[in-house]
Each structure stands twice: as C-alpha cells, then as structure tokens.
Amino acid sequence: MKRIMLKIAYDGTNYCGWQIQPNQTSVEGKLNEVISKLLNEEITVIGASRTDSGVHALGNVAVFDTKTIIPSNKIMYVLNQKLPDDIKIKETHEVDKSFHPRAVKSIKTYEYRILNSKVFLPQERYFSHMVYKRLDIDKMKKAAEYLCGEHDFTSFSSIKTEVKSKVRKIYKIEIDECGPYEMKNDGYESRLIKIRIVGNGFLYNMVRIIVGTLINVGIGSYPPERIVEILAGKNRKLAGSTAPAKGLTLIGIEY
Amino acid sequence: MKRIMLKIAYDGTNYCGWQIQPNQTSVEGKLNEVISKLLNEEITVIGASRTDSGVHALGNVAVFDTKTIIPSNKIMYVLNQKLPDDIKIKETHEVDKSFHPRAVKSIKTYEYRILNSKVFLPQERYFSHMVYKRLDIDKMKKAAEYLCGEHDFTSFSSIKTEVKSKVRKIYKIEIDECGPYEMKNDGYESRLIKIRIVGNGFLYNMVRIIVGTLINVGIGSYPPERIVEILAGKNRKLAGSTAPAKGLTLIGIEY
Questions:
Q1: Chain B residues whose beta carbon lies within 8 Å of the beta carbon of residue A181
Q2: Does B120 touch chain A (CB under 8 A)?
Q3: CA of A185: which chain B residue's CA is closest?
Q4: Å from A164 to nearest chain B CA?
Q5: Same CATH topology for A2-95 and A107-254?
Q6: pLDDT recorded at residue B183
C-alpha cells in the first residue's frame, strides 16, 4: 500500500463542486470512479480543498491509497487517458502514508478574474465575472492592503461557516490588469482584472466575499478605508456581496 | 436605409464557421436570424472574413443595411440581449453605404495559441492547440523573420485556394510565452505560446499552415532557414501540417 498525491486541474463549470453530493456530479466522485476502475481497486480520494460548485482549479491537491505497481509519477498519464476533458492530473507522486492534505498546514493561492467591460466576451464566459462599471484599480489595491495580514475575517465569511476561529492570515493580494488576449491597439476598452490572493487558509466563501467587497470599492460605493471598519465589525452584512463562483480558480496549494 | 458596421466576437467551437452551410449552424446564419427578428426586417450581413469551422474571433467585421431608427451605436446593446453567449457584438456604427468589408484594403491580425505542456489543461481546451514536445521559441522567432515581408505564399496555402495571386505581405509575427493564468511559482512547466500575425490578407489556411510549420521548427524537425526554401518551392507539400482550427482567433481588422 502506498499513498499517492495528485495535483488536479479542472473546469468546475459542469460540477456540483469538489465534494460528493447525492444525484449530482462532483469532481471527487468522478475521480473515485475513474481511478477505481483503472486501478481495479476501491479508491477514495481525500481532497485538500472542497471547492464550491462552479469554482475551478489549476492545482487542487488530493491523496489516495493504492496497491498498484504503476510507478507513482506515471499514474497521471494513465489517469489522464480516461478522465474527461474538464478534469486533468498535472502531477502524481508518492507521499508519506500519514500525509493528510487537510491536516497539514498549507499556503493556498486563489485567482479571481473580472471582465471589466461594457460587452460580455464569449471567450471569457466560463472563467470570469463581468463587471460593467469601470473599476478604479488603484482604490482596489489600497483596499486590498487593509486586508493583508492576520485578521478575524468573520465579516468576510458566509454565515454558514462552522469553525471556531475565524482568524486567518493573508500574505498578499495582487491585482493586475490585461486586455483579454492582450488586445493591443484594438481601441476596445475591455480588460481582464486578475486578483490573486495568497493566504494560510480561507473561510467559507471568503475569497468571493473579499472580491465582492473590492468590486464595491472599485465602483466607488465606498472608500478603501471602509475595509478597516468592516473587519472590526465582525458582521457579514458589512461586507460586499459574494462574487460569482465562475470567476474563481484555486491556483495551487503549497505544503 | 443606412449601413451598419458590426465588430463581432465569437467562440467558434459550436459553429460550422462564418459562412452559411446547409443544415449547419454558422455565425453568419445566426446573425441574420437574430438581427432580422429584432429589427423586423430581412437582414443579410456581409462578413469581412469567412473564418473556418472552429476558428474564433475577437473582432471580425460585418455590415448590413437597415431602416431601423435605433441609434447606430446603440444597436449592439439590443442585439447582445438576444444573441447567444458565444456570439457578442463589441461595436456598431454607421458607415458609408458603399462600404464593403471585403472590397476595401485592410490589415488583419490573428492570434494562435499553443499550450506547450505535458498535460492537457481543462482551462485551455477550447482556445489552444496542445503540443507535448518542448518548443524552442528562439528558433521559431528566427523562422518567423523569414516569413515577414512580401512573398508568394503558395507553399503556405491550402491546395484548394482559388485566387490568382498568392502574393501577400506579412507585417509582423510576434511570439510570446506566458504561463496559463500566469502560474507563478507553480513549478509546473506548462506555458502558453501566443503567435500573433499581422498582414494585408491571408490565403486559405495560411495562418494555420504557418503555425504548423513554426511548430516543426520549434520541435527541431528542421532549421529556421528551411523557411526560405519552402517559400521558394511554391509547393504546399514543403510546409508543415495545418494546425488545428481551435487555436486560432481573428483578433481584429483595420481599414
């Protein structure tokens, strides 16, 4: 018996999320099904991040135990042959039998993509959220600074969050813009804004509520300094709305 | 009666191409259907570029004649309400009644996206072509230099091409690489290579054959200098294969 770690990329559009749900198609369920069939064993993957319905990943992590004699770093090629086009394995390697991807401390990186445009672009429809009003990126960057560091993020988590401590640490928030497909000299004022957030753990809906709040700052609904009050208030109602799932991608997890 | 110019973005995945074909869904046909219904007139669009099946556009151009009283620059918003998610209008404005988008000289820009990776990435599956072998971008850039300028591109056009002169001018070819979603510090060696080609006109399949040939150079099948012979030979068999449609996007057309 050996424990294999998977790094998984997926397009979450057609899944109910990572976690198995009755009568729905989940990433976890699809992996269990395909890996069990291929290795001819009953396989149960343990995921690092239970991404929500519609959220994507470039590097979610999972482990499973197997008796297979296929070399650990080759398992990915075998699996990718049978996995659907919207789930692919980027890496497989053996880890210690005691390694549990949710029990070990980690650093997670998320990216949220905003299409800031007067027109919805077909090419961006699966992986970004469209905002019609022009966003002031400098103000968003200023607001993001107030979020960095260790804080109680109660205001930035779903009221359904069931954890004792809501203290988390955000290492950095980067906000970059580029034209979609780098539309040089196109004259068309659409742009893709990428918000990248790195932290030691995220509460339920935390990234999406942070993004919803940064959008409010970007359109001028309130000043960047309001973040200080929102954090201090420890009340979900003070923050902005939860930005749609489809704009969010779990980029990677470092252990 | 006034003539309206449209700038159109589309995801070509689910279309038989721009041009109307019997029993298939075309971009041209879908535009005629939706615009006719909305304006309550029989509308026939005239397209600038008849993109192939599976090819995408960020800025194809078309014109149509209408009696509508809707202000020209507002027509786009009305149309976008009814167009499917994979076809959207980026701009509408009135042009001279004599303007024909294929009769007037223009400069076209295309972008071809290559996912150079050992693993197929779900996020890139609609808009890029995957190449497994590591590509030598410096060699590809050198080969591209030989293609720039005015040449007879017979070797780089489909044998089905039915035009008298196969002389065209390429103004520039830019080759850039980036990680998908700018995968900083991911350690995963996949990259997206974007080949942008600007020219005064392109023969049938010309961009895709140029890309297929640049890929051959990139994987080391032949040296960059071979381009000179391929051009001089005026024979389609000398060039590389036609790269798949899905990697190609018509970025824009300037008049």
A1: 58, 111, 194, 249, 251
A2: yes
A3: B252
A4: 31
A5: yes
A6: 47
pLDDT of residue B205: 96
Quick check: is A138 catalytic? no
Q: What is the mean pLDDT of residues A27-42?
A: 97
Cβ-nearest to B58 among A9, A181, A251 = A181
The stretch A232-255 carries a mean pLDDT of 96
pTM of the model: 0.91
- The verdict on a CB contact (< 8 Å) between A186 and B252 is yes
The residues of B carrying an active-site annotation are 52
Q: B142-201: per-residue pLDDT in tens?
A: 999 999 999 999 999 999 888 889 999 999 999 998 765 544 434 446 888 999 999 999
Q: Closest-CA residue in chain A for B184?
A: A251
- Provide ipTM, 2 decimals: 0.86
- For chain B, give every domain's residue range: 2-95, 107-254
Using CB atoms, pick whichever of B88, B188, B194 lies closest to residue A90. Answer: B188
Query: What digits encode the pLDDT tens for the residues B9-40?
Result: 999 999 999 999 999 999 999 999 999 999 99
> Using a CB-CB distance cutoff of 8 angstroms, which residues of chain A are in contact with residue B11?
122-123, 125
Check CB contact under 8 Å for B121 and A183: no
The fold of A107-254 is Alpha-Beta Plaits (3.30.70)
The CATH number corresponding to A2-95 among 3.40.47.40, 3.10.580.10, 3.30.70.580, 3.40.1350.10 equals 3.30.70.580
CA distance B197 to B137: 15
Coil, helix or strand at residue B180: helix
- Return the residue of B nearest to A186 by Cα: B252
* B99-122: average pLDDT: 93
CB contact under 8 A, A119 and B90: yes
B76 CA to chain A: closest CA distance, Å?
9
Count CB pairs under 8 A between chains A and B: 100
Q: What is the CA radius of gyration of chain A?
A: 19
> What per-residue confidence (pLDDT) applies to B180?
55
**Closest listed residue to residue B97, CA positions, set B2, B228, B209, B239:** B2
A47 has pLDDT over 70: yes
Query: In whole angstroms, what is the distance from residue B230 CA to residue B146 CA?
Result: 10
**CB neighbour class for A57 (10 Å; exposed up to 12, middle 13-18, buried from 19):** buried
